[in-house]
Amino acid sequence: MVRVLISTIYEGRANKIAIKELSPHKLIIVANEKSDLTQHKAISELREFYKDTMDIEVLRTSVYDIYKIVKDVISKVDNETKKGNEVAIHVSEGRKTLFLATLFAAYLRKEKIKGAYYVIEETSALLSLPLLDLGLRDTKRKMLQEIIRGNDNINKLIRKLRVKKTMVYTHINDLKKEGYLINDKRLLEPTDFGKICLL
Fold first, then answer.
1. At residue 185, does pLDDT exceed 90?
2. Minimal CB count within 10 Å: which of 109, 123, 190, 194?
């Protein structure tokens, strides 16, 4: 089995600690679409230092489109676990949006990953992060899927989900309060968070 570490990056210091602690055979670096000089240098140094001992792949993704980052990281997790590989996530470096989105990906695939980790800057210790459950219960999940498909008519939702009108309204209110739908009385539109939770 191949141990894979999916890791955000900026200057590379925390990446080296995570690599030392987790001993991956393969590193997938989650990087900005357009690296700045610091990130480019860190990736080059990691490639040079580990060239004989570890495969390194760079996943170029958005800096601020959280949905896209989550989708890209989930794709890597799914591909690696399909091959029978063990996957861990490391989020110490990079923009906060990369950190957050990569951690969301870990939450959404928590059954497929070994863990999510952060390197404490002051002590260089590896901190295991809790893996939260972002999942939705069956009926709410189906309702959100239907709304994303464009079925935002209450009567259509009642027919498709085979639930009572009061239950549809209750679920819609819950989905709005929980941040899955935009909180607007006139619209039934998913938030980015709602879209992310269906990946």
1. no
2. 123
